[in-house]
Amino acid sequence: MLLRNGLEPWHLLIVVVVGMLLFGSKKLPDTARALGKSLRILKSEAKAMKNEP
């Protein structure tokens, strides 16, 4: 199954493995949580800007 831009599932697996090597398995949950929080803030700000007159 091909994803967008020709990425295959094993590409994502390689990204995860490299991330674990760079950041260590203990820091990954905190990093993912911070990234999710940042994305939620960005989404809410973009929505607020879109609804402004």
TrEMBL record:
<dbReference type="InterPro" id="IPR003369">
    <property type="entry name" value="TatA/B/E"/>
</dbReference>
<dbReference type="GO" id="GO:0033281">
    <property type="term" value="C:TAT protein transport complex"/>
</dbReference>
<dbReference type="Pfam" id="PF02416">
    <property type="entry name" value="TatA_B_E"/>
</dbReference>
<keyword id="KW-0472">Membrane</keyword>
<keyword id="KW-1003">Cell membrane</keyword>
<keyword id="KW-1133">Transmembrane helix</keyword>
<dbReference type="InterPro" id="IPR006312">
    <property type="entry name" value="TatA/E"/>
</dbReference>
<keyword id="KW-0813">Transport</keyword>
<keyword id="KW-0653">Protein transport</keyword>
<dbReference type="GO" id="GO:0043953">
    <property type="term" value="P:protein transport by the Tat complex"/>
</dbReference>
<feature type="transmembrane region" description="Helical">
    <location>
        <begin position="6"/>
        <end position="23"/>
    </location>
</feature>
<comment type="similarity">
    <text>Belongs to the TatA/E family.</text>
</comment>
<keyword id="KW-0812">Transmembrane</keyword>
<protein>
    <recommendedName>
        <fullName>Sec-independent protein translocase protein TatA</fullName>
    </recommendedName>
</protein>
<dbReference type="GO" id="GO:0008320">
    <property type="term" value="F:protein transmembrane transporter activity"/>
</dbReference>
<comment type="subunit">
    <text>The Tat system comprises two distinct complexes: a TatABC complex, containing multiple copies of TatA, TatB and TatC subunits, and a separate TatA complex, containing only TatA subunits. Substrates initially bind to the TatABC complex, which probably triggers association of the separate TatA complex to form the active translocon.</text>
</comment>
<keyword id="KW-0811">Translocation</keyword>
<comment type="function">
    <text>Part of the twin-arginine translocation (Tat) system that transports large folded proteins containing a characteristic twin-arginine motif in their signal peptide across membranes. TatA could form the protein-conducting channel of the Tat system.</text>
</comment>
